[in-house]
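Hi R.,

Here's the chain you asked about this morning:
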Amino acid sequence: MTGQILIAARGIILMILLTIRMKAPSGKRMELSQTIASLCGSIRMEKGCNGCDFCQGIEDENRLFLLEEWDTEENLMTHLNSNHFRVLQGAMNLLKEPHERMFSTVFHLTGIEKI
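And the predicted structure, written out as tokens:
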């Protein structure tokens, strides 16, 4: 087993990430940003939401990102059918080009030890 590191884990934590990338028209960026930022607090209060962050690209201030973390697929699906998400979709009608929606499943190993 040369070159391999064996690990022992006590548990696995599953997290589902939703990343939405957007390109806002420069004249609508502020309006879109304010709308999305105001929704983040409400989204964070939804059942199963472990986090919701909104940020702007460094090299292109019109490139916007919404990052959401969910504990289960069921809670994410409830969110995708919620009023908050419908408002978000309405705000994205201001976009310069179609948005990208990406889903990722992340596994975190807890209690990791080298063996």
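The longest helix spans residues 29-44.

Let me know if you need anything else.
M.
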